[in-house]
Each structure stands twice: as structure tokens, then as C-alpha cells.
Amino acid sequence: MHLELSGLTRSFGSLVANDSIDLVIEPGEIHCLLGENGAGKSTLMNMLYGLLQPDSGEILINGEKVTINSPSQAIAHGIGMVHQHFMLVPVFTVAENIMLGRETTRGGGVLDRKQAYARVRELSDRYGLEVDPGALVEDIPVGVQQRVEIIKALANDAEVLILDEPTAVLTPSEIDDLIAVMRQFKADGTSIVFITHKLKEVQAIADKITVIRRGKVVGEAEPSASEEELAELMVGRAVDLVVDKEIAQPGAAALEIRGLSVIDERGHTAVDGIDLEVRAGEIVALAGVQGNGQSELAEALLGLTPIAAGTITVGGKDISRTGTRQRLDAGIGYVPEDRARDGFVGSFTVAENLVLDLFRWPPFSKGVVLQTEAIGQNATERVAEFDIRTQSIDLPVSSLSGGNQQKVVLARELSRPLKLLVASQPTRGVDVGSIEFLHKRIVRERDQGTAVLIVSTELDEIAALADRIAVMYRGRIVGIVGPQTPRDELGLMMAGASQQEAEAEATEHPTTLGSI
């Protein structure tokens, strides 16, 4: 399929989200749409998929103008889309989600689940997308849920597949799997529009790169372009891709964890008797493949997950049996892994979300009465300081792009004095310009004497921020190393090797682990 967008324009009030955008997608190519959060990438693709209607411009398929008023019309034209926030029904099985909207029945009007199972298995085998058709969506990891979304699009015979920020919630190994699948699609003649802001992924997979900035196409680039060149084209200025920080000057232990164990909701031991210290004025990063206890550890520190054994001490005070509010009041800041579930209230305004853990105190309240003027003034200052892209502080946070939602969460947590900052995936879904800013703010927090515990699956981020790296495997810390530790050693430790075993293996068999 030859797909062309010509002069597509879409406004929301005074905001021009897309300004006369031209884009050509050739058959069997991977076309990367690169841009900051809020640049207009998703708006453009939502018009192509029929979720939004353009104010002007046209869409042409194989040279003929088409009108796409709904996703069903897009699907009929051979266009599929995998959204950044998955559109699956959690309590349905994989096969049932695939059937939705295209149900087939057999005698007596009974849903033909057998046919749906067979279709899932056929597509899984063809593209290497290993999925259990009978699994409930709510029980499978996010990486597998994404495969379900892709299979769902392929089941509708998509010739053009739109992937909107597909790696935002994936681990490095899942990203590698996705890139392999994309190459298979290309080999089979399927075109892919790959929306992202991750430069290494663009370089690894793109045939063509179009850069959008503030609603306009500002240029095209070759996949051979350097990260610095791509970043400057995205942001409109030179971007420092290296975190500039002084050597840490740590003080006394601000966080002390002793013998901590956590049982997850399935009854499994997620954190298994660990000891860890984070000192004032240092950044400790937890590294590990997702699902090895890092998330449960972070949630246990905030009281979101009960502990089975052990103690947690912050600033010399045992908080092991206190509630979440008491821990926040004790000086813990928290950036959750899932911002939409735990980081903000989507229906609340930007201004309200920026005081979620402060509204009980002056100047934001007087007795039981909220002080709206002070809340608004705080929001205006935080929006400017953190470059939060919003038309108004009175808009719901759910209307912001994912990266700007993340800025709201971090801005709120860093707007009060902290003893400990716990940040899980602090830059997940955030563009390169914002990552630069957020990394600097985290380092500034460290330099002000705050203890910082980072949980990240991004090895680049860990190496850039950490003063020490604690590697977790199956709920235990297998070693604590410095930030200069080679990636292949970290990778071996993340797979369960001890520090000594990893050093010996990496010396004997060096690899290029983590190249993406």
C-alpha cells in the first residue's frame, strides 16, 4: 500500500496540534516519526486511524483520496494501530480480545472460540509472537499484552501498522524481540509507522525518519545520523546526552533496609531478605530484568505493598509499620512505575495534581478550605520550571501527553523537602529533551543532600545517574557495583551470576550486550 498524508491540519482551540503535515509511507518500509512529547505525532496518527478528523488536508491510498471517519473504516482500508495505552479488555482472554468487533459464530449463535484460538496461533507462529490464546489479559505481562495488540491488528489484515510509542513499557529484551518482529513485518511487505522519541531504536530499525516539532514537519533524517543530530532536530537546540555530575559526597545512611521480604499478590516471595543502604547525597540504582522484585521493593518503601519481614528506616526512624501518608510526611518522595495508576488522578486538573501530597498544609489550605489562589500560583510556577506542555493548569492531567504527565509527577515530588526520593522508571515515555532536564533535576536533588533510589530498566540511564548500582535477581541483590561496570558484566548479573562470576565470564567471553 502507498499511503500519503497531504496538508493535514488539526487544532484544539487555539492550539495547532498538526500544521499542514505532509507524509508519505511507502510499501514495506519502516517509517519512524520522531518528536518530543506533545509534538503532534499521536494526533497525526489518530487522524489516520479515524479517531480524530482533520480540519483540512487529505489522506490518499494508492493515489486515491479516502475519508476515514472511524477505526472500522481505517481497518477496512488496511490500516491497523497499536496504541501507547493498550485498548484491551483485561478480564477477557487473548482470543476473546482478538475476536472483538469481528466475532464469528457457529450453530445457534455461539461464539466460535476455536476459530479465534486457531487464528491467534497462526499469527503467533508466523511472526514469532508467542502468546497463549486462552490467557486472561490481566494475568500477562505488558510486553505480552503488546503482542496481543499487534496480533489483533494483523488479524484484521493490516497492510500499514501504526506503533505508537511501542517500547515505552518494555524491557530491553522485549524491545529486542519487538525489533525482530518489525523486521519480519517489513520482509512480508507490511509498512510500519513507528512513533517514538528513543534515538537508539530509530537508528536500529528505521528506513526513513521524519521529525515533527511543535506540530510541524521540521525535516527528514537518515538512520545513519548521529544521536546528537537527531536530538537537535527534535528539540530545536543542542542537547547534552551525557549527564554532567560531580563525584558524590555521601553522608550518613538516609535509608536503611534490613532483612526485607515482600510477598506479592500471587503469594510468591518477590523480595527475599535483602539488605541495602542509600546515603544522603548519593544515587543508588536498582538494575535488573523487570519482574525480579524491584517494583515490589519500591512499593514496600512507600507502604503500598505490606512487608512480610524486616525493617525500613528513614532518617533514623523505623517506618516499617506506618502508612503511606506517614511515610510521605517523613520526607519520602515517590515517582511510581505506572504513573496512570499510581502517580496522578486523571480527572483532576494539572494544578490539583501538583499538590496531591501537600493540599492539607498551608499555604494550600486553611482548615478544611482549599486555597485555590495559592494552588494556582504553585501550578504556574511548576509548569514553567518543569516545562510542562499544557494549554491551561485547569485542564485534566489525562489530557496531557505521557511525557508531560510524568513531568507533573516529578514536579510535585520535588517541590517539597525530601530525605529520600524513590523513582521507578523516572523517564519512561519521556522524550530526549525532557530526559536531559529530569536527569539534571534528579542530580540536583542528590547534590542538595537527598538520598535517591532509582529503579530503571534503561542501562544508559543507570550508568548516567548512579553512584552505585545494586543488581537484583529473583528478589535478591546479587551484587553492588560502580557505574563504570561494563554492560556485559551487568547483564550477566541481571541473569543471576554473582559479581565474581560475571567479572570472570565477561573477561573470558566479552559481548556487545545492550547495544540497543
Concise account of the structure shown:
With 516 residues, the chain is α/β, with parallel strands linked by helices. It has 3 domains: 3-235, Rossmann fold; 241-331 and 417-516, P-loop containing nucleotide triphosphate hydrolases (Rossmann fold, 3-Layer(aba) Sandwich), CATH 3.40.50.300; 344-416, no CATH class. Helix 4 crosses helix 5 (142-155) and helix 17 (487-494) packs across helix 18 (499-508).
What is the level-2 CATH architecture name of the largest domain? 3-Layer(aba) Sandwich
Distance between the termini: 29 Å
**Fourth CATH level, the homologous superfamily of the largest domain:** P-loop containing nucleotide triphosphate hydrolases
Count of separate DSSP helical elements: 18
Low-confidence stretches: 511-516
CATH class of the largest domain: Alpha Beta
Spatial extent as radius of gyration: 24 Å
Instruction: Name the shape in a single word.
Output: globular
Number of strands: 24
Q: From the 3D structure, determine the CATH topology of the largest domain.
A: Rossmann fold
Report mean pLDDT, rounded to a whole number.
Answer: 87
**Integer tally of domains:** 3
| Class based on secondary structure composition and strand pairing | alpha/beta
Task: List the strand order in the largest sheet.
Answer: 6-9-10-3-11-12
Strand fraction band?
Answer: 25-35%
What's the story with the biggest beta sheet? 6 strands, mixed
Helix residue percentage: 25-40%
State the assembly state of the protein chains. single chain
InterPro entries: AAA+_ATPase, ABC_carbohydrate_import_ATPase, ABC_transporter-like_ATP-bd, ABC_transporter-like_CS, P-loop_NTPase
Keywords: ATP-binding, Nucleotide-binding
Domain ABC transporter: 3-239, 255-499
Organism: Kribbella alba
